[in-house]
Write a structure and sequence with these properties.
- The chain is mostly helical.
- The chain has 6 helices and 2 strands, in the order αααβααβα.
- Strands 1-2 form a two-stranded antiparallel ribbon.
- Helix 2 packs across helix 3 and helix 4 packs across helix 5.
- It is globular.
Length: about 100
């Protein structure tokens, strides 16, 4: 059972974000360092996230929804690398499937 089967709209939003990050930065880790975690605090707030993803073309509402999709710990007010790292694994799996 995949996220695309459970929640297609969330899966599409995350997939689109991942594709934008990878097309601009090459991989999610570089996107984390150069776009999302510019302050080098290792966590980002909703306000910092929203400001960063507007550079990718996201509006305020879209950015807030994306933040919620990424936030793995509901009580947390921040995102950390561990909250977005799975998007890098998605890309690695995609590349492995293309090589088959």
């Amino acid at each position: 059972l995949s996220l695309h089967e459970l929640d297609p709209s969330s899966a599409t939003a995350l997939d689109n974000f991942q594709c934008l990050c990878i097309s601009r930065f090459g991989n999610m880790h570089t996107a984390w360092r150069q776009l999302l975690n510019r302050q080098r605090s290792n966590v980002i707030t909703l306000q910092e996230f929203t400001k960063a993803v507007t550079e990718l073309g996201y509006g305020l509402e879209e950015a807030e929804q994306l933040f919620e999709h990424l936030r793995a710990r509901p009580a947390s007010q921040t995102l950390a690398w561990r909250d977005v790292a799975f998007l890098q694994r998605w890309e690695e799996r995609r590349q492995a499937l293309r090589k088959r």
